[in-house]
Amino acid sequence: MHEQEILTEFKQPSTRERAFRKLVSAYQERVYWHVRKIVITHDDADDVTQEVFIKVYKHLDEFKENSQLFTWIYRIATNEALNQLKRIKRRTALSIDDVHKELSNHLTHGQLINGDEIQMKLQKAVLKLPEKQRLVFNMKYFDDLKYEEIAEITGTSVGALKASFHLAVKKVEEELNAD
Question: Which parts of the sequence belong to the RNA polymerase sigma-70 region domain (predicted)?
């Protein structure tokens, strides 16, 4: 179903619930994996994904349609995932570097992530990136988003995103070649 059809159905009280179910069905998996790459653990990603769709439901009437619906949802998902990282930091009284080490530990010992050794090394290298570079790297490399879409999601210029991605790729390559 096209975004416009979902939006049109959502505006009608009689089809609102059906439209929302279609929206969740269309975007839930992509949102979950986007969030999962940021917060790492399944439980946190699951919680954040639920929060994202609660916010989408509450605020969809306010969507201005000056961007794609998907981009708007991704922006909400990104912000919610970053907020979750901040909550983890406050809850555990750890520095953000310690939070990243803890997340890296989840990568290695978590039951719900399995993958070959190079994938694990890649994920650990990505976790070492500064937050902004990690977001850009994940959205460009894993989610295959265009710079223009990432710019809308993050509120950053395309030029700055290209620079961040370039730096992130260099750091990831250095980390992967360090072994």
Answer: 23-90
Q: Over the Cα atoms of the chain, what is R_g?
A: 17
Token pair of 101, please? 């080490």
Full-model pTM: 0.77
Backbone dihedral region for residue 146 (phi beyond 0: left; psi -120 to 50: alpha; all else: beta) = beta
CA distances from 110 to 17, 20, 40, 82 (A): 35, 32, 9, 21
DSSP letter for 162, please: H
What CATH code would you report for 1-95?
1.10.1740.10
Model confidence pLDDT, tens digit, residues 3-60: 999 999 999 999 999 999 999 999 999 999 999 989 888 999 999 999 999 999 999 9
